[in-house]
Design goal:
The complex is a heterodimer of chains A (425) and B (126). Chain A is of the alpha+beta class. Chain A is built from 12 helices and 12 strands. In chain A, strand 9 and strand 10 form a beta hairpin. The chains are: A alpha+beta (425), B alpha/beta (126).
Chain lengths: 425, 126
Amino acid sequence: MEQETADCIVRHEAPVRFETLLSEASAAFIRVLADDIDSEIESWLQRFGTMLGVHKAALFQIDRIDGKLKATHIWFEPGVPPNILATFTADYPWMASKILAGEMLVFDDVNDAPAEAAKDLLEVQKHKGKSGVTVPLRIGGQVAGAVAAVSVVKRKWNAETVQQLQQITTIFGIALERQQSAALVRKLREENQNVLRTVPMAEITASLAHELNQPLGAILNNAQAVRRLLSAKRLDVEDLKDAAEGIIRDVGRVGDIVRHTREAFHSVGNPKLSVDVRELLFDLERVLRSDAKSRGISLRVSVPPSLPCVISNRQGLIQVLMNLILNAFDAIEECPEGARQVELSANCTSTDIHVRVHDTGKGIDPRISAQLFSAFVTTKPSGTGMGLAIARSIVEKSGGRIWAVQKMRPGTTIEFTLPIEGRAL
Amino acid sequence: MIVDDDESVLGALARLIRSAGFKVRAFSHPRALLNEQLPTRNICLIADIYLPEMRGDELCHALAVTGHALPTILITGRDDETTRSMVERSEAIAVLFKPVDERVLLEAISRCFNSQPGNSDAACSS
């Protein structure tokens, strides 16, 4: 009887301990600040690694620049000689290709690896690895890396252990997603520290209107005075000359105001750079995901696996897309839940990238469709009517065009083009 | 009497009103107008709302206190709620927004002269 109880404890001890550790980890990752996620992952790699009885554990992530898997977090059991895991893709090409395809790799004995994995095997053996499990790590549903657990002795991996590693990987994935969103939000915020974001639009327009109305009033009154004087044949040459000079001076003033305004809005530090539109669309989707979710909107990105880069001002493009996406969100506000869809898509021709923002809303009000991209045209009670006008200005400045797609399907589709890098005007 | 601290606007308004046949005196500072010896009849004031030291409606009031209540046209380039609520309380004959068209301006001036008893002929014209 006593023996049976002891047996029971032994059999249940491990799962209970793992579950406890897992829930502790979940709680820890919820509490931790986005900036401290990396060190938190390191410490949990160690705790899980020890618990699973492995000798090495590492987390790899796809480098956003070159698309290669690289080690970002590593743990070695004390006494196990550390090896440098700089670039997973270079050292383990076969395994990397499997992971990127979303496959899990389990080897009780690394010698069981297929012939294609010869290079991988050599590298594993160099570092005394005898068996291991590698689980793809997903962020937002997409493979973004992997978590590997390696043993320096042969080992029979049971289904339970593999499942536990998957659960750990999921927790790491959620934490890394939060880390990326935090970094992205910070980056976007920094990029948007221009006058448009810091000064309310109403203030700008009111002050601009006043600045312009002064010289415009003077120009009008001088011109009208000249017409009257000429009609009455009162040819006071000096007076007429003064009026003409006044007009010229005030037109110069208007020009200065326009130029200064333009400089204020397109401040220096907005150089045209090579921009990866595909990456930008995913970035924006990530930033706006929670906003969309809270409004019952399904936000999707549909782009080919790769797109050429465009030369543009990244901050300007963000502004264009933000305007279009937030317009789309507003447009589907009144749709029944389940029918609120916004899709960001892009494709390319030989010369341009075409980007589309589609929503399933009620479509463009026919009363304004002709002047959709003109300034101050809006149907929103609190709209400025500047969003699409600014978008057009930015797109055209990048050498592209923007238009509303004639109805092929219900809702609204706004499409714009950007010349592919190397083909810009 | 025209008061506007924007020299261009002042010059152009003065020229336009003069071209319509009125005698004009132009001031870029309200203080300068207050120091003037003003005629008692056939006179009106055209003042920008935002002037140095005081607003156009305050200038109008200051003149009234010294016994020179002039029919007044207020002009402004600032079309906002603050300005609109401010001018609603003023006793101006007209409030015009820049750019001001000659037809509107001259019509307002003639209303100013008509408002003065016994001056229906806009006797200010030269």
